[in-house]
Amino acid sequence: MILPVAAAQAKPGRSFVLTAERMSQLQQINSHVNSTIREVSDLEQYGREDVWALPTSGKGDCEDFALLKRKMLIERGWPSSALSITVGATAQGEAHAVLLVATAQGQYVLDNLTSSIVSPERTGHVFHARQSGRAWISASGEKTSEPVADLPVAQVVARRTRG
Length: 163
Known about the structure:
The chain contains five helices and eight strands; from the N terminus they run ααβαβαββββββα. It has helices at residues 6-9, 20-36, 42-46, 62-75, 150-162, and strands at 38-39, 59-60, 83-89, 95-103, 106-110, 126-132, 135-138, 143-144. The protein is an alpha+beta fold. It has a six-stranded antiparallel beta sheet with strand order 5-4-3-6-7-8, sandwiched between helices. Strands 1-2 form a two-stranded parallel ribbon. Helix 2 (20-36) crosses helix 4.
């Protein structure tokens, strides 16, 4: 069963006004990180699954891209409360993480799969959990200590391979 996305996409923190200059920063950082970091799996880079780290080697997977974008935006004065890592699955059922930016004008996704900055609904992804401080909020609204994408993502993959 795919979980509803409302809680996973719920707006964290206070409203943050998105000016033309701030939208330009989002576009610049998204494009810069996407073009300078080479996508490799954690298994290839670290010899194990699911390592969340800044891509200081110039290589990383989706959550590493998101972590670097978050760090760069915070360094430019963006409030951390407006920036949350969000996990789920792509339209193909592959586990995926993006940076979700919450603004007074709506939410925007910075994704290593595209240079376009769009609303969560326009990504084609299914979101299962988002970062909230030191915890995670699942799509059902449950607070957990770790992202809860594994079971729902596995179900999406299994469903797609049958049909």
